[in-house]
Each structure stands twice: as C-alpha cells, then as structure tokens.
Amino acid sequence: MTVGTEWMIDAEGCKPDLLRDPNVVRGLCEQVIDDLSLRVVSPELWHEFPPPGGVTGLFLLTESHLACHTYPEDGVATFNLYCCRSRPEWNWAEQLTRLLGAQRVSVRSEIRGSASTYSQVGDAVGGRGGIER
Amino acid sequence: MTVGTEWMIDAEGCKPDLLRDPNVVRGLCEQVIDDLSLRVVSPELWHEFPPPGGVTGLFLLTESHLACHTYPEDGVATFNLYCCRSRPEWNWAEQLTRLLGAQRVSVRSEIRGSASTYSQVGDAVGGRGGIER
What we know:
Two copies of one chain form a homodimer. Helix content of chain A is 20%, strand content 35%. Chain A has helices at residues 16-19, 22-35, 92-100, and strands spanning 4-12, 45-48, 55-61, 64-71, 76-83, 104-112, 123-124. The two termini of chain A are 21 Å apart. The A-B interface holds A 1, 3-4, 6, 8, 10, 12, 41-43, 45-47, 56, 58, 60, 64-65, 67, 69, 71, 74-76, 78, 80, 82, 84, 104-106, 108, 110, 112-116, 118-121, 123 and B 1, 3-4, 6, 8, 10, 12, 41-43, 45-47, 56, 58, 60, 64-65, 67, 69, 71, 74-76, 78, 80, 82, 84, 104-106, 108, 110, 112-116, 118-121, 123-124.
C-alpha cells in the first residue's frame, strides 16, 4: 500500500558560511514550504551544532515532513521531503545552486509504504537544468 | 562526501488499533533510541491526525533524525532513521512484527551526501529473520 513519496536531496560543494547560517537554511526550508503550499502543523525544530558543525531543521507537515541537515565542514547539505500527496515540483538543483552555492545536486525519490517498490536514482547537476524527480 | 546513512523502514499489514495509539508508537520510537544509544537534542514533535489518520513523530538527534508516520487506514507504518555515525543494528522486522503486528517489513538504506552513490533495496519478511541493512 503506497502512502507517499520521499525525496532525498543531497547538495555538494556548498559554501560553508551559508551552511552554518541558520537564517539562510531556515529561509530555504520556508521557501520550499511556501512554494509547495505545504502545511506545518506544529512548531518547527532547529538545532545548531557546535563548530565546525552545521544546523538541523525538522518540520512536521500535514503532508508528512521536511528535514534538513547541513555539514559546513564537508560543504554538504541534505534534505528529505516526505509527502503523502501528489508529487510536488521544486527545482532543487537550481535553487540550491543559487541559495547555497551548490556545485552538484542529487535528487532521489522512494515510494513509501510498500515493500514491493524499488528505488529510483537520479543525479542533477546544479545550474544546468538537471533531472528532477 | 558521505555524511551518513539513512534507513527507510516500511511496515505493512499492521494492526490499525496499534497504529493509532500514540503511546504504542512513541514507545516503539523510544525503544529504537534507547537500544541504539541515540541522543535526542530537542523536544520531540508529535501530532495525532483526526480519524482515520494516524500519528507522526519527529526526533532531532545528535546523530541526525528519526521520523515515524502511521496510517491505520492502510495498516502501514513508515520510519526514517538518518544517522551520521556507523550503522546501527536494530531488528526492525522482528520488532515491528512484535510491536505493531506487521506482516511484512521492508528495510532500505541510502548513503547520504554524495551524488555518486546509489540505492540499495532490500525486503525483509516480518518474523522470518529477513534481511536487515
């Protein structure tokens, strides 16, 4: 029984200063939520890890959840968007290139709720109109 | 740059009464956290959806996050455990069979942080010593 789709987005080569700035990361997550008309149903959770660590944000949505982790020491940011309604469209590659300076963005999706479903894997090169799933 | 591993666990054929009981679902998540010595770094988030909906729980961990969604109307529970340290061992198939009455449990894992990594897909049949990754 399929209950939703999960997108896993991994961005590499990001600018460390942006990854450790909670306002930048929070703003990015809020833009995703606004653009996709997602509904937050409880207070969001944020945590700043001590240097050289980054930030973690978790949003509990009517549609399921959005999670973000940043790793300034590695130039990496990862996002999970788990959504129980039809596939949202957001240009992760373009936006993460613009907002975090990402040099490479990977977007993968997984169908959730059924053991008989299998993975889809896609790579999207930042700023070059890569594949979004 | 690899920054962690994410486990996606999908359980089907669960007992609806257990999936809509926040104490059962919370207890299960707390058992995962205790057994794997994970550290919760901010208040956990819980939401109960109106019937026939289930519950959602989000835990912000030092190691990343644990998320749980239940769908009593479909007999499904899904879990995400994102962990930035070495692979934790937890027998999801056995435990979800015991605690939720799951008839089938799928455990998948994804390496996070690198666009060059690809998916692993594994199925584990509840209560029969299925594959754990």
